[in-house]
Amino acid sequence: MTQSPAREPGYFLDHLRTVDPEVHAALAGELVRQQDGIELIASENLVSRASLEALGSVIVNKTVEGRPGARYYGGAEFADRIEALAIERAKQLFGCAFANVQPHSGSQANQAVFLALLQPGDTVLSMALDAGGHLSHGAAVNLTGKWFDPVRYRTDASGFIDMSEVERLAHEHRPKLIICGGSAYPRAIDFAGFRAIADSVGAILLADMAHFAGLVAGGAHPSPVSHAHVTTATTYKNLRGARGGIILTDDSALARKLDSAVFPGVQGSVILNAVAAKAVCLGEALKPEFKTYAAQVLANARCLAATLMERDIAIVAGGTDTPLLVADLRPFGLTGAAASDSLEAAGLTCNKNAVPGDTQPPRVTSGLRFGSAAGTTRGFGEAEFRRIGGWIADVLHAMAAQGARDEAVEQTIRAEVQALCRAFPIYPGLDARTPEGQ
Ligand SMILES: *Cc1c(COP(=O)(O)O)cnc(C)c1O
What we know:
The protein is α/β, with parallel strands linked by helices.
């Protein structure tokens, strides 16, 4: 091989563990953390080994801008093939005419929708953050809240969207865009009802299905796609793929606007290794096995909600139609922050979450959000989710009784969690010595 001083001998050969022991050690620690703990954060999942390979592939080197077949750089043959596969699969999976698979994230997918359809200062009607909405739907701290004029709907006292309030606000404020879908709203949304309200005021309806896209794909939840003018989703939650966003529509004029809002509107070149991994996950979601997974995600979320309610833990909206559920800790006098720390010490990761009418600040909150997707991917069924619910209840009851974390309970449960995890191993063969496990 020709040698030149600029060509470092190990550059194309050496593994991360020798090149960068510090990053390697942190990544190896993360693999063990995922293997030995139960992941209940609703926005997390475990991608397939195939997705990991796509993410770590050399397509990461390729720069393209524009759409397949209409690029600004050459050498795009395989990039085009990959992105076209992802687009075709997204269209087939969700039954729509147009898909853009380039958004780097769900937030950027939503930003592109705002850019495509609105002018700064336009009114947007969306769900308030503390009722379960998402930052990118007009929160004051987000670009969508700073540059647009958000009006927020909330949930009623039992935790359900009050469609008559949505209708009243729509007629009062005449928004240009109405958004349904949230990050902590557990119940099925009346998409047809939202569309009727949008039509009655001449608004565009955006459905953000980030937290139930996998169930829609697997036939375990109604689809918003035919009701909304535009649908956005993340690919990494219950859809079980790599991190990223997608935008779907049936309207060709809207599709053109959305495409140019993504590029050159809010993004530059395509993250092609992420698009390759999206193609892989969409291909996986088209297989019959995915229906079984989706049905089990829902069954497990409902089982967890029922188990917690049996142990006197209040569940917002009394249950769930999605992979997520929210526990209201106010009757226990506990905060979400303290409870999630104790659960994490017990090997159960979840996140603190505001509950409807919460008076605690966002870093504290009075609730916990749980999701069933990652556990289901791992192979947990309802028997395992009943045990998980029992552990969560044990931690919360011990804390409430003592007014402080109970370390003995945390340690006992930690050992049981670890034993359950070892019975359902993830990424066998992947460890600190393999390329993706590095
Ligand atoms: C998770 C989520 C997003 C976007 O998430 P990113 O982290 O930006 O990919 C957007 N909308 C909703 C409703 C979400 O739950």
